[in-house]
Amino acid sequence: MSRELQRATLFFKYIREEHAHHIEMLERGKQQLLEALKYVKVDPNAQPRQQNQQQSTPPQQQPAEPEKPPVPDDVAADVKKLYKKIVQETHPDKLAQSDHGQKEREKRVKLYMDAVKAFQASDRDNLVEIALDLELDTGLEVEKIVASLLTRSKALELQIQQVKGSVEWLWMHSDEAKRVEVIKELCRRNGWLYVTDEQIVESVRYASGMHPGTREDVRARARKMMQERRRIT
Description:
Blueprint: H1 3-38, H2 51-54, H3 75-90, H4 92-95, H5 102-120, H6 124-133, H7 142-164, H8 167-172, H9 176-189, H10 197-208, H11 216-232
Helix pairs in contact: 1-7, 1-10, 3-5, 3-6, 5-6, 6-7, 9-10
């Protein structure tokens, strides 16, 4: 493996791991934020907001993904050859007769399904990624492999930047005070009636697992006390 290809491969694998981490954090933030909003109750004493207060700042437009470069005339042949190599290693029928363990088979079946989608879309970059994961010889020139890896890396970097600009990411990287402000801002943007600060703090603590009612040790002690009371009576 040439030094240039080695660098591109290592960088791509690093970016892919970073992307997976960011997506995981995004999903966790989304779940916690939705959980917090479930506990936010409208203050019955709050007055409806004025129309000019209800107008929210327009959401910032996310940068569009860069257009894929024009596909060269010879890419179809490359895609077909690469796809056939991947199928030889990942097709479910062939895996049934292989010595691979269950976990490896499941991994390869997933790669096979990804390869089918990539082939149907003539996505050589994705096929190159799958081939490298399988440690297959792509049969492509080094320059083409490096270009594919760089294209994939840039796309993942763009998605990482989009995640970092999301409210879910802000939520996951904020303390309690900042999370309260996030909930308030969501209320303002959606024109909801104001809720009391105490209710918002409670909702944040519930979602973050910091509210006394969400702590397992408190619940465990309560269960123990109930059992002890039943034993005594």
